[in-house]
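Predict the assembly for these two chains.
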Amino acid sequence: MYALVDCNNFYASCERVFQPQYNGKPVVVLSNNDGCIISRSDEAKALGIPMAAPEFKVREMLKQHDVKVFSSNYALYGDLSQRTMSILRDFTPHVEIYSIDEAFLNFDGMNISDYNEYGDKIKTTLIKGLSLPVCVGFAPTKALSKVANKIARKYPERTKGVYVIDTDEKRVKALKWTKIEDVWGIGYRMKKKMKAKNILTAYDFTEPFYESWIKKEMGVIGLRLRKELLGESVLGMEEPANKKSIAITRSFPKQLYDFDSLRERVSTFASVCAEKLRNQNSCCHTVIVMLGTMEHKTPTTKQYYHDSITLPFGTDSTLTINQAAIRILEKLYEENKGQRFKKAGVIVTQLSNTNEKQLHLFEEENPKHLALMKAMDDINKKIGDRKVKLGTQDAKTWNMKQELLSPRYTTRFDEILVVKCH
Amino acid sequence: MSLNRKHIKPKLTFFTPNFESEIKIPFVNQGVSAGFPSPALDFLETAIDLNEELIENPKTTFYIKVEGHSMIDAGINDKDILIVDRTLEPSDKKIAVCFIDGEFTVKRLKVEKDGLYLMPENKNYEEIKISEGNNFIIWGIVTYVIKKI
């Protein structure tokens, strides 16, 4: 048996943990730079505030309904996510973290007589311990557990947030209820193709008539999904693995066109990438830099420019990655002079394990980098906020626009909750 | 270190070690030598870890700072740091972080026949009786107080 545990409106719910005055009130969370709405409480959804709407477009509506608006506080969400996941591990050792607010659980080899009751225990433990509401869907396969979760979320009164698909009758009923676009792994493009073929529900998708068409259109992935929906488990739990690539991309609060500002941004992103590489003990072989112009009005003009450099050796050195990134930036900047950029990013990829770093006969980076990077990480860890930087990173902080940021209650000692004793 | 079951087949079960959790192990630097080993080696222990000693449920424990004087007789002063565990069940006489009508407060719980009271520990403050009309949550139970001397 599998379960999918999904936190309801995770970011909005996290904001309420330390500010319960917003329980039962409409709450929304904005993306980086306070751009778009990325999480809505049930009350905000009921008001008809659309997901992903740019903040400026719904500003009047937010004001009119007295909606509480937060900037995204990833330090808080990350910590509460980790706490959630480790609480889930108390219920089974087999937990696959699927995203910041979702996890698959597997109960093979465990003796659970009543999954409804077990799901309820998971739910109440998280509410009591962290004030985070979740829905739990149980089913014999991962894809079906997603479906079960959706049912639990859709019918809170009837399911109390927990739904178990444990008979074929329930499975068929659930699949007939599930729209094709809500099936795990069916994207926007696929949905269109399905609809053209008259595949409207998950149940249609499992009809034998469509099997060969699915094979042709989606290959083995589609066939696996079909089996999963039929109740045959073919997708096991994924082992936690290091990331295959690391990307740091941000939009700027205002458009940038001078080289120095861009260099500062790219340099900072490269440094963060390098730090993340060292944290997961990886080296990268390829550095990619991308710039975006974000011309919404004229979709025909090219929106993104990018280029890459593949290094002769794997590296996790801030200096080397930064050098490569700036070389790419120089080239991109020359090629697109006069453009105004709204977005930039650094991506490091082709990762290998640092411990398996191959010694290279002719081309190797300065071994002093290793000691320098370690010293830099140690100091930054101690004083926080990445104070030790490269010369190309501007001294002035380029923080994102986060005007409505709540305190980092769980990760900063000077920002913990203050309680008045009156 | 715990064991993770990796593949589940009818007869064989394979385990892979999980190195996620950290355990501090004392470093023994005795070298290799002949003769008597140091008798102190038998008494080596890991260093005291306050996280381990003071926090029973790390996943549901939070730090909270106090502002105000209503709990001074319980040893909770202005600017003290509280360790608050949300897993523990609230009961009579426990000190709790509560949320009442839009504001957090710290008080001692008193369960009486006619209901629940929030008791200050300072004679200049008044008790609060919780009634139906209050928007009230017991947020967590205070387990320790950290104070700077």
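Chain A touches chain B through 23 residues (CB under 8 Å). Chain A has a mean pLDDT of 88.
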